[in-house]
Amino acid sequence: MISFRYHVVSLCAVVLALALGVVLGASSLSQTMLGALSTDRADLSGQVGTLTAERDTARAQQAAADRVLAGAAPAVVGGALADRTVVLLAAPGADPADLEAVTGLVGQAGGRVTGTLGLTDAALAPDRADALRGLVTRVLPAGVQLPSTTDAGTLTGALLGSLVTAGRGPSSSPAEIGTAFTALADGGFLAPGVAPVPAQLAVVVGGDPAPGPDASGRATALAHLAGGVRAGGAGTVLATRSADGAVATARTDPAVRDVSTVDGIGATAGRLATVLAAAEQAGGGAGAYGSAPGLSALPPRTPAA
């Protein structure tokens, strides 16, 4: 007769056998999986190493090209802006190194930067457009005509063009200029600082596109602001580090077609292109330059008349 003890021992044996099978199977599977993962890791490490080497090589080549172009800069831009004055408008995200480099190249081209006007985040923010639009119409100097539009970027650019450039419109008095700048700064739309002396040309300098849900609205606002400066003042160049964002918008928007655009201002080639594009604007021309597909890296040499 089979005892209860026999049943217990048999059950324990079955359980132990199952457990041993699971352990052995898991061990075999683990070895297989670990082997595959180890191979994948080695492959990925190799790919990372290759990409890192390619990146470092590209950076070294870019640095070498920048050094060569920097050495050739006096010959490339010399005399292109002879006796011309330029004002810089720095968008949020503009790199101080880009502003400094453009200022130096304008000098090498025979011109002079009269000052830099800093735009704040609020100047391009879609949710501040109504407040900015209302302020622009209130501080408009006598005799200055705004474009017939409700677009805040275009209106702001037209006002700034009348204040910082010696363009086609009537000259504003120092008191009117001071009142407008103070109101825009107090409203949080301009960075504090000394108002630039009006110049013959304007260069709007941006950076890489700002991330966020309102990135497209900010890019459009900056492109339209540059177009407003061009319409309300004098020759204008929009230069940024990226071919996306404001520059891409300006290149496809008919309302900004008279503005010259440059991408890649973070490199020497882009900075040279910015100065030559300003000279092109002084001669009444416009174009698009940079690293984007189908574009020339540099504008044709156009000495200022």
TrEMBL record:
<feature type="region of interest" description="Disordered">
    <location>
        <begin position="284"/>
        <end position="305"/>
    </location>
</feature>
<dbReference type="Pfam" id="PF11382">
    <property type="entry name" value="MctB"/>
</dbReference>
<dbReference type="InterPro" id="IPR021522">
    <property type="entry name" value="MctB"/>
</dbReference>
<protein>
    <submittedName>
        <fullName>Copper transporter</fullName>
    </submittedName>
</protein>
